[in-house]
Amino acid sequence: MRRRATLASLVTVAVTLLGIVAALLVSSTPAYASSTQKVYLTFYGWYDNTPPGCAIAYPDLHQCAGGTGSYSDPITFASDTAEIAAGTKVYVPRLEKYFIMEDDCTECDQDWSGQGPDGGPGMWHFDLWAGGENGNESALLNCEDALTQDGSESVIISPPSTETVSSPPLFNSSTGACYGGAQATDTVGQYKNASTGTCLTDPGGSSTSGTAADVSTCGSSSTQQFTYDGAFLKIGNLCIDNPSGSTLALDTCSGGPTEEWSVNPNGTIEDMQTSTKCVRASGSTLTAGSCSGTASEWTFTGTTVTPSASPSASVSASVSASASASPSPTSTASGGKTYEADKAALGGSADVTNCSACLDGEKVSSIGGGSSGTLTFTGVSEPTTGTYTMTVYYLAVAESKPAVITVDGVAQTVSFPETSASSYSVVGSYQVSVKLNAGSSNTIEFSGSGTKGAPDIDHIVI
């Protein structure tokens, strides 16, 4: 779930001068030694910034949020200044890009100073700028959601200038493509209020804009099946809207800022623009108000679906720190076959080891590395030739791990994100597009990239 950075609508001259002084001090201060910190990363952009646009609270290298991700032109990110000083550079290995602290983020502040919507107190939270000016708003918001992973990941604070930098932007405003082909997921289901025990409802199944949303006895009716796509909570063509004050209505979806909501880990449904109002239930009434108490907490029951990918999307990641279900695989033809790694062909030092979190209690380890272990799935079968989505279930502890995936002789190198800082009980998933031939003669081999070991593999689903 992405979180937006916030900026007061009018920044006083005094604050601006302080930002300039801080920038001068940072630029004249010697660099500190690099360190690695586990950080929860979210994303924001042109449309969900507050106000919409590129204004930032602590201008340093940029007067407006931006950057390409190189060491000399890092991308803007937002956080709490009590957590990390304005002007500090960081490097995100998963994205292979540098960032610089230049903005404030309300939810980052909340997560650091107390029990915030995502965790805390003392929770490290950076909100990374994804851009999006002149781009498609829905595509940008979906990209932000797709790039956000559950849990924290390793970030290098005050990094050296020699880290690898990838050139593609996080979001391409011209094409709508998301970095790495990342693909968002939608949830569809029922929201039950913790205070009233009733569920969010579109009364009478109305499709009329301006209908007052309410809560009613939970049931199986389609009038309680709401879709959330990472920004908009909707049913049919209507979105939950907060046009003014405490009023909540079901209005025709426009993509406007008053329709943008964060469904948070603590169960609140919070407005993105100010992070001060939450969807609350009182009796049968639904209002926007305080985020405190059980009246603002909701339990979701439903399913996750993967919408159509952008035309250029090829790889999408879904790593869960709680080993929850990954998004449903998508493909150009029928799929859903499971191939277990411990039953595949092993080469070199690759071997089968116990894994309590894995599908059948076993995984394949020691792929790649100095002894060049390999894992080969043979007899991979599909009815027609085409490009399919292969979901790899794997473990990469303490760091991201690369693997060379060779499909019928065609190789690609994939970097698998870290699944846990220390636990071998967390299985992540990563989706990779592969071209398969009709029939059962396809082979898929996993090997190492250089001398570095590949992740441990549980199973694949195609």
From TrEMBL:
Record-annotated CBM6 domain positions: 337-462
Signal peptide: 1-33
Keywords, ordered alphabetically: Signal
SMART domains (alphabetical): RICIN (SM00458)
TM annotation in the entry: none
Pfam families: Ricin_B_lectin (PF00652)
InterPro entries: CBM6, Galactose-bd-like_sf, Ricin_B-like_lectins, Ricin_B_lectin
GO molecular function, a single term: carbohydrate binding
Protein name, as recorded: Ricin-type beta-trefoil lectin domain protein
Protein source organism: Actinospica durhamensis
